[in-house]
Amino acid sequence: MTSKKNNFWHDKRVLVTGATGMVGFWLVKDLIAAGARVVAFVRGSDSPSVFSYSGDFRGVFLVKGNVEDFASLERAISSYKVETVFHLAAQSIVGVAHQNPLPTFETNIRGTYNLLEACRLHGDIVKRVVIASSEKAYGLHETLPFSERTPLTGRHPYEVSKSCADLMAQAYHHTYGLPVALLRSGNIFGGADLNWGRLVPHTIRSFLKNQRPIIRSEGRFVRDFLRDYMYVKDISHCYMKMAEALSDKKIHGQAFNVSLEHPLTVLELVGMIQKLMKCSHLTPKVQTIAPGDIHSRYVSASKAHTVLGWKPKFTLEKGLEETIAWYRDYLSTHPDSLV
């Protein structure tokens, strides 16, 4: 899905960090379709991804480096005269952050301030910066849904890394006038996510293998607590919409929540996939583990609707249908991934 046909992106020089991730994959695809000249900043040590062998990205300028290395980021921006930056690179798995917080802090915090500083130093060419934040930056609050006025009070490693990165981006706007905006989303699903430990790809692959999906979590979390789930194509569209809106200085420094505003439990989401794949005979197995992130959290997207004019184009069901079709096709041509 591309942004509105207005030639905004034609020949724009765009840097995307984290381009080999699921969101990066679809965003780069949409930017190319809109006519942008894309520079993909990817880890030199990245494991194979859909991005790495997709023929869709032959026209992309590929820069290998780590966001923890300021010099490589600064060089990518200056060498390619980048006008627009989408910063998606992150360690995004909550469990990994809990078990081993230091690499998460290095990537999510150091990587973000390196990116912001490189953009500040090249403020003569960088005209807009969009940072991937998260609803987890809000931490835990009793009042739901979270709005953009909800304080950022992360307490656990992943939450703190997102709270910190979010606040640093705001600091660079308020102190240096950096033209930056932030997107705070809940859980994102869609094709091209090859992390089989995540709920949606694991569930779809399990059903395709005629196996019961395994949900490793505390029982109350999967039954009782609500979360946002968003289809990746809607997220990509919103990133592009935000970058376009940064032409208006009133958008600088602002954060926007994005959501379908239809939160549901883990079991409800698995049940939807189960129904769409006609696998009612394969009931999920819940394996109780030590409690961790056990509470409801979801956001209001009213500001994005009002200020950006953004609306999701996919219902949850339609997004899941497309995602199931993507994995069915992918796994039919990559049978090793079924093992």
UniProtKB/TrEMBL annotation:
Q: Which SUPFAM superfamilies match?
A: NAD(P)-binding Rossmann-fold domains (SSF51735)
Ranges for domain NAD(P)-binding come to 15-323
Q: Which Pfam families match?
A: GDP_Man_Dehyd
Q: Which domain of life is it from?
A: Bacteria
Designated name of the protein: Sugar dehydratase
Source lineage? Bacteria, Candidatus Tayloriibacteriota
